[in-house]
Every structure is written in C-alpha cells, then in structure tokens.
Write a structure and sequence with these properties.
Helix content is 55%, strand content 14%. It contains seven helices and six strands. It has helices at 8-17, 19-30, 36-43, 47-59, 87-110, 127-132, 150-170; strands spanning 34-35, 63-69, 76-82, 114-116, 125-126, 145-147.
C-alpha cells in the first residue's frame, strides 16, 4: 500500500477491502460527486471493480450516490460522495455485531461439554457427539477425554468486556 493515510474514512475502507478500496476512498475524498468513470480514471482500476467497491461502500452506508442525467451522453449516471460522518457509526455497529457473536459463542461454550483426543489435527466434539461415537475420535479413533474449556470462556469474557468498555468510552 502507498503511504499511511490517517483519515478515518480511508482507514475503514482499507480495512474492509484492502488496496483497491484505499484507492477508491482517496479518490472520493479528492473530488466531490465523482462518477464511477472518473474514479476509475483517477485510480487506474477497472470500471467494473470500481463499481463493485462503490456498491459495497454504499451498502455499508459509507458513501452516498445521487443519480443524475449526463447532459453529454443523455443517460443517467451516479455521482458518489463519501459520508465521513458515518464512519464512527459504522465502527460502533461493527463492534456491536462482534460482541453479539462473541456472546453467542460464550453461551455455547458455557452450555456445552467438550471432548478431545489430544491430536492437534482433530477437532473437539460435544458430549452428544462423543457419546454417539462411543468416546472414540471420529477422525483418528483415539479415546476422547473431557476437555476444560475454562480458558476459552475466560478469553471470550475478557474480549467481550474489553469491547464493551471501548464502546462506553466512545459515547
């Protein structure tokens, strides 16, 4: 990637999709109400890739598009604009989604008993699956033994609290 750009809009775009998103985001900040063709020209990216990126950013409410009639060509085009004011809301929404997924995972960990054979290549199984397999690993046939998932639960809990704490500081 080129230079580090500290604008939150560009940082988020880059985190979402990498270098191509970075180029499109920079182009959007340089010119207000740019068409997809103008963005493709300024970034050197193919028009279909630029459109894909624009639609993705639009779907995440990070940019807005206005349909206008092109006076020269006679057809409608979209003019795109960054919505820098939406970046913080986008970040908070992503944090909420992450907390929700982590809480569901923690609930699953707390409500399940797991067994494992000790082989790193094999996955752990729930009590029900272990019972069905007569406590033999479905992958390697070794004996399955109860596994303490306390460290996993602890890690999930601390991550949830850290994100929630970060969200409270924001407001």
């Amino acid at each position: 990637m080129a230079t580090v750009y500290e604008d939150p809009f560009i940082k988020i775009a880059t985190m979402i999709g990498g270098d191509e998103y970075h180029k499109v985001a920079r182009s959007l900040l340089k010119s207000i109400d740019a068409t997809d063709e103008e963005i493709a020209s300024s970034t050197g990216l193919r028009i279909n890739l630029v459109r894909k990126i624009l639609y993705d950013l639009f779907g995440k409410s990070l940019i807005s598009g206005v349909r206008v009639k092109d006076e020269k060509k006679g057809w409608f085009v979209y003019r795109w604009r960054s919505r820098r004011e939406e970046v913080e809301g986008f970040i908070e929404n992503q944090k909420k989604k992450i907390v929700d997924r982590l809480e569901r995972r923690l609930s699953y960990e707390e409500g399940s008993e797991f067994y494992h054979c000790g082989n790193e290549d094999c996955r752990r199984v729930t009590f029900e699956d272990a019972l069905e397999a007569m406590f033999k690993c479905p992958s390697c046939s070794q004996i399955l033994e109860a596994q303490d998932n306390g460290p996993v639960k602890g890690a999930l809990s601390s991550k949830i609290e850290a994100i929630k704490g970060d969200m409270q500081q924001t407001f």
